[in-house]
Amino acid sequence: PEFNLHVSSGNSDTPGTLFLSDLVTGQVDDNDDVGMIKFGSAGDSNTPKVGAQITATASENWTDGGTNCGCDLEFYTVDNADAGATLDMRMVILDDGKVGIGTASPDYLLDVEATTSTIRIRSTGNNNASLIQKNTACEWITYVALTTGNWKLKDTTNTKYPVTIEADAEDSMLYLKANGNVGIGTASPDKLLHLSGAQTAII
Questions:
Q1: Binning pLDDT at 50, 70 and 90, where does residue 201 land?
Q2: Exposed, middle or buried: residue 38 (CB in 10 Å: 0-12, 13-18, 19+)?
């Protein structure tokens, strides 16, 4: 063995398998934990300290010899300086493939929830930072251009750029109010179209 625990099938065509089970026989009910991996240390007082955990939880009642064995996978960590060493769920993968970050009940393929919920897409190489949305009809990309820093909306299917916002654009360059008024250069449009700026408005 190369590690403290080394699982090998002894066959080049068969992967090594580690099987975790709650019971050798018996009914597994919805919400039962069926497998668990803990990460930690014995600690100074020889009391086990757990800093992270992965848990497999049944998402339905399992049937002996049947096909019902739906399962969720839950990921937990402990905050720094948490004296109580509370394991907080950070991510879950539901039986249907939905992924929740900060929520145990994701409604979408990826559902992110937090008091301050921010997702950053960052390119550290010579590439645009992009977000792609695609269906069978069209593909759209929103991205920050590498050389200019401009934000662009691109219709990839038809190779068109209908919207561009330059870096360092002024506040409220375009403001759409709930009542339908549109402001250009103002956040308080009082007409259907309200233009405001240092230069004389010309249409």
A1: low
A2: middle
